[in-house]
Amino acid sequence: MVKVRAARPAEAEDLTGLVMRSKAHWGYDAAFLAACAPELRIRAGDVTARRVVVAENGRGEVVGVASLEGTPPRAELGLLFVEPSAVGQGVGRLLYRDVLRRAVELGVRRLVIDSDPHATGFYRAMGAVPVAEPAASAASPAASAAEAGGTALVRFEAAPVPLADWARAWTGGGRAVHLGNVGEFNAQFADATVDREQRPAHHYACLAAFYSPHPAALVLPRPVPRGWTELVCRQLGWAGVEVYDGLLDADPGLAEAVRARPALAALLTGSGLPLVPWGRTRAFGRLAGRPWRDGELRYESKSAAHGLFGRILADGGHPGIVLPRQWRVDGRWAAARMLAARTRAGESTVLKSEHGVGGSGTTVLTPARVRAAGGARAVLRRLPRGPLLVEEFIGGAASRGDEGPRDLTYDGFVDEAGRAHEVGGAVMEVADGCYRGATVGPGVVPGWAEKSLTAFGAAVGRELADSGYRGWFDVDFVADGTGRLAPTETNLRLTGPSIAFMVAARLDALRGAGHLVRIADRVELGARLPEAQLDELCAALARGCAELGAVFVPAIPTGAFEPAPWLGVLVAARGREVLDAAEAWVRAEALAVGAMFGPS
């Protein structure tokens, strides 16, 4: 285990030797190294003045050195060198992340890096951004030697930022235990649209890796590939994450499965760390020692949420919000009659179940689709049984073919003290009423929607807090094409967008500010792969995205073993163009794995 500690003045000459060996590793000749030596020398007085730290392995050997120099708000990465025998073992990554962490603590907001040309790939992978300004003073002997040898330094910058305020409030800024109880949460709702076998829920439980920016332990119902957890930890800079998987065969009660193992329950609940579930359940309350509040999840019901929206709007103050009309019908034939009447009037309709996951139980019906299906009764026969809501369809930009987001969401949470916290807005990808993914980050929500979305989402958060709800929530919206948003439902649990927010917060703290993160629920694989080959594919996707300037994180690996294989993925970048290119490349490469097996 390599650890970072402060350097000691007595080590100065030894550290200089390490620096010179590291520089020589790239094949520079003796004349060049001699020209660099005065600038690269570390003197005893430099150790404190230049904030020098070292990386030390388990045998007490120093295998790397780094310095953070200058005064806030601008500072420089003066040194970052690794013993040649330790190159490729993660030492440089550990030192760089330590420099970024210390820069945040000092109040540095601009970290300048003058990189050796051989190290540019490393700094790009670490998230530093190349800049056009000169990398070194012409008066510098090392710079002059570099220029003479055709090896001019390359300047990069990073923008160190602390963990987002909301993320610190969510789990106290520290590590947490994550309970992947997706199936247990869904099973609370006796709705025919929620899969009774909970197969999708057990795949989505893999998202437990991302319930907070830094997990200490993952508790999962089904076994997960070890290569997956190792890659996720490497990509997000996590260490010491314990994984407790394979706790269930079929029953969705994960919290009860933990309670049935007293030693595991005591370990998880006695650690002093927050216990974070996908969503609140009575069984989770028993495990966490938290009283269950009757009616706590009542606004998970789509009709109850609609009523809540109406009460908020009745007070005024939200001119950018329009509420679609909604009717609860007593039976399927009553719904058919209403659907038929709306179809004859040329109106599109949304049919909803009271509960559903990821758009399940929600069907958008245009008059043309109703007629093509053989009429309203024929449509209803094909839908799951259960209570139905008939809702006005809000037309918008997407229905006219205009550019711009159609589906948006607001994320926030209510802490145990009853304070509502804003996380932010996201743009969702929705196809025919079904959620497919989301993008979060700076500038994602268009300016015309941002104020209305955040003001109304915050109002919902306050109402949820007053109702006794505690935990994560979101409010989903559709845009009507005239600059207004229509709220459609609340989700009183973690969601796909919430996972993207967690990863964005982690990457910003780990690599510097400004990450856009996209979660894509289902990326088709061209073939089912054995576990080892799946690990190889994910590692190759991570390397390829890094070359594009993006970060790849596999989010849901277990779907790869289904008869129709797929992956859930997270892709991050600092610009939309790179983000789009990386996602397209990942999808193409994932689909292309079938080519290795020849024609079907």
Strand order of the largest sheet: 20-19-16-17-18-21-23-22
The Rg value, from CA coordinates, equals 27 Å
The chain-level mean pLDDT equals: 90
**β-sheet strand percentage:** 15-25%
Termini Cα gap: 47 Å
Quaternary: single chain
Main β sheet profile: 8 strands, antiparallel
Could you estimate the helical fraction of the residues in percent? 25-40%
* Quantity of strands, as a count: 23
pLDDT < 50 runs, ≥5 residues: 137-150
What is the molecular shape?
Answer: elongated
Helix/strand-derived category reads alpha+beta
| Helix run count | 22
In brief:
The chain has 600 residues and is of the alpha+beta class. The chain has 22 helices and 23 strands.
Written account of the structure:
The protein has about 600 residues and is an alpha+beta fold. Helix content is about 35%, strand content about 25%. The chain is built from 22 helices and 23 strands. A hairpin with a 5-residue loop joins β2 and β3. The longest helix is centred in the C-terminal third of the chain and has 21 residues.
Which descriptors would you attach to this protein?
eight-stranded antiparallel sheet, 600 residues, 23 strands, alpha+beta, seven-stranded mixed sheet, 23% strand
Strand and helix map with partners:
Layout: E1 3-6, H1 12-24, H2 30-40, H3 46-49, E2 52-56, E3 62-71, E4 74-82, H4 91-106, E5 110-115, H5 120-125, E6 129-130, H6 141-148, E7 154-158, H7 165-171, E8 176-179, H8 182-186, H9 199-204, E9 215-219, H10 226-236, E10 242-244, H11 254-259, H12 262-269, E11 275-277, H13 282-288, H14 302-314, E12 326-329, H15 332-344, E13 349-353, E14 362-365, H16 367-372, H17 376-382, E15 388-392, H18 397-400, E16 407-414, E17 420-431, E18 434-440, H19 447-467, E19 471-479, E20 485-491, H20 496-511, E21 516-524, H21 531-548, E22 551-556, E23 566-573, H22 576-592
Parallel strand pairs: 4-5, 8-9, 8-11, 9-10
Antiparallel strand pairs: 1-2, 2-3, 3-4, 5-7, 6-7, 12-15, 13-14, 13-15, 16-17, 16-19, 17-18, 18-21, 19-20, 21-23, 22-23
Helix pairs in contact: 2-6, 10-21, 15-17, 21-22
